[in-house]
């Protein structure tokens, strides 16, 4: 699919900033595509870009309205329909990462047909996937895993890609969620894949590659989350990661959306190793990525230093302090990675 920028980011009336993580991710990594945001009354999220109406966005040359939310169940509320129809009538395409398809709303489907506009349902792939086979394939792979969902797995993988490419390493971010697909222009939202085919879809996302090439696979959910562990397990088996980075948010006590206590980093490392060895017996942890946004500078540095000492692994905040220490360890652990500079 070819989704044409520039974009107007539609946030609806989401109840917190995290519910707008799709839009936030696009703004953070593709700011040049994002002209403004449209928020309904009582919206509790703010991307820090200009607020706009549909008419104002049209005047700025916006080509696509992005429904940039990630709510529970991926539903498209009925009261958002009129805004989407207005955008279509103004000449915009519409793209969404929700489970609910845009065209399932009769008013939206009719408006798109009448005005010749395209509806992009990024979460839904037209691919037919095979079941996962678990056969070792050439190339190197890193998977980001988490103590919870929404803990920085996508941002960590993207930061690693940026740093590794800057060093001349052959590395590609592989998107497994709707926001990652928006950012990279390719991939598959695996939480919309039928369960039997999740691992096969990941094998397709990160196929056989040069022996020195790294696929940096975006993690989803958590092996400990009662809602999303099934997706996380299928992703782990399909990725066959050689290395993994544990992503963590230190202020949470329970997992997002449920009352289940947050697991420890040690728990995540142990379970990832035990389950990951099914398809790659050589799997090992590379480091720890922490979202320290809620901590002060000195507190964050001490927290990361303490984690590093406790686990014997580099620990960093990928956005605040970069991922240099993680790439340093990757190159040290896998010296063959530096033998092939990225081409193209």
UniProtKB/TrEMBL annotation:
Pfam families: DUF1611, DUF1611_N. Residues 129-327 form the D-glutamate N-acetyltransferase-like C-terminal domain. Gene3D superfamilies: NAD(P)-binding Rossmann-like Domain, P-loop containing nucleotide triphosphate hydrolases. Residues 47-124 form the D-glutamate N-acetyltransferase-like N-terminal domain. InterPro entries: DgcN-like, DgcN-like_C, DgcN-like_N, P-loop_NTPase. It comes from the Bacteria. This is N-acetyltransferase DgcN. It comes from Lacibacterium aquatile. The gene is dgcN.
């Amino acid at each position: 699919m070819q989704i044409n920028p520039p974009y107007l980011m539609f946030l609806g009336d989401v109840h917190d900033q995290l519910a707008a993580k799709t839009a936030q991710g696009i703004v953070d990594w593709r700011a040049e595509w994002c002209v403004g945001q449209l928020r309904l009354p009582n919206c509790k999220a703010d991307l820090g870009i200009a607020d706009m109406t549909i008419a104002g966005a049209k005047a700025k040359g916006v080509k696509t309205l992005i429904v940039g939310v990630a709510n529970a169940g991926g539903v498209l509320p009925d009261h958002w329909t009129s805004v989407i129809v207005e955008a279509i009538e103004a000449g915009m395409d519409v793209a969404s990462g929700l489970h609910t398809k845009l065209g399932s709303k009769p008013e939206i489907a009719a408006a798109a047909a009448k005005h010749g506009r395209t509806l992009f349902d990024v979460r839904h792939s037209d691919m037919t996937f095979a079941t996962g086979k678990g056969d070792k394939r050439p190339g190197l792979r890193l998977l980001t895993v988490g103590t919870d969902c929404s803990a920085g797995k996508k941002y960590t993988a993207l930061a690693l890609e940026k740093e590794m490419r800057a060093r001349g390493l052959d590395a590609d971010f592989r998107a497994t969620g709707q926001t990652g697909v928006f950012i990279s222009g390719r991939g598959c939202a695996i939480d919309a894949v039928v369960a039997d085919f999740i691992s096969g879809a990941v094998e397709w996302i990160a196929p056989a590659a040069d022996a020195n090439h790294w696929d940096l696979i975006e993690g989803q959910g958590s092996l400990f989350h009662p809602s999303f562990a099934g997706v996380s397990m299928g992703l782990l088996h399909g990725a066959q990661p050689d290395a993994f980075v544990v992503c963590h948010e230190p202020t949470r006590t329970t997992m997002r959306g449920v009352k289940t206590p947050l697991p420890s980093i040690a728990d995540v490392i142990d379970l990832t190793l035990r389950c990951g060895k099914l398809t790659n017996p050589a799997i090992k942890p590379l480091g720890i990525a922490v979202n320290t946004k809620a901590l002060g500078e000195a507190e964050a540095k001490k927290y990361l230093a303490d984690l590093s000492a406790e686990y014997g692994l580099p620990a960093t905040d990928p956005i605040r302090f970069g991922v240099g220490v993680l790439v340093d360890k990757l190159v040290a652990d896998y010296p063959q990675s530096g033998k092939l500079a990225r081409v193209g």
